[in-house]
Amino acid sequence: MIPSSAVLGIALGQTESHAIALCPSSSSFKVSGHHILTAGDEDTLTTTMKTLKDTLLSRVSWYQRLSPSVVVGVEDDTVISKALMAADVDDPLEQEAVVGQALGMALNMEISGLFFDFTKQHALNHQPGQAQYQVVACRQQTLTPILSALKDVGLKVSVVDTQLHGLQGVYDALIGHYQPQTSPLWLHLDAGKLTAMRALSDGGLYQQSLTVAMPLRGAGAEGEATASSRVLQQHLDHAYQRVESEHAVPVSTLWLSGHWPSDILCPSSAQRVFIQPGEPFGAPSLSPHACSALGLALRGASGS
What we know:
Blueprint: E1 7-11, E2 16-24, E3 29-38, H1 45-57, E4 69-74, E5 80-87, H2 92-107, E6 114-123, E7 130-139, H3 140-152, E8 156-162, H4 163-178, E9 185-190, E10 193-199, E11 205-211, H5 221-246, E12 253-258, E13 271-274, H6 291-302
Parallel strand pairs: 1-4, 4-8, 9-12, 12-13
Antiparallel strand pairs: 1-2, 2-3, 5-7, 6-7, 9-10, 10-11
Helix pairs in contact: 1-3, 4-6
């Protein structure tokens, strides 16, 4: 079901943050606005959030401004991700209590200083009454100022997520849009950060994110470009070989997005396709930096 109100995705960064507004249409979503927040702005955080709200919602119909939902994504290195064992209970409130207790013990700290979310993965057959939970936690001091500022300007945050999950939202939406016969390996390059994703036949998702160490400057523009291409080629080859070796279904298509050199090569058994992730949503020139914000908005729109 397509919600009638706009959905905002905000990807928080240390130097630059991106916000995307998705506007629902009859059967899909379209990007209606993109706003960039730069660290060091002299405005107060509340003023900055008001500017964001006014800028993005001014481009949607009046009835879509009434109760917009907001999904905030933090950088992945600011969260704690853990697999924990706790009591196997079904009641959501009981789950929150037992997982919170297990998280506090694992981190040796009070959970009152954390925002955390979790999913129950499976019961443990070898330990009756216990289950494994995947937990993601973030220090409240990281998010409280931004959440308070959004509340002050009348924006309700429905979900706090990670930017990696935002990219997962983009991948899922692209699969739904292009309907490939086999799952492509998506390699998204953004400012020296490479993220690889591929849907697996068992319903899981292969993903890996790493920082690409680019060559030092000083070799001249041509030499630097050649060295950069060589480094990126090595990373592409490694990602392809790892997926091929670990999973049974061969990779027939590589989706490349972001700042890839045009001379990058793909294995002979796979087709190389340069994609613009924002294109199916009416934003063909969307920057690689904003893809996480797009995915956060998509996840908020789908309720996932």
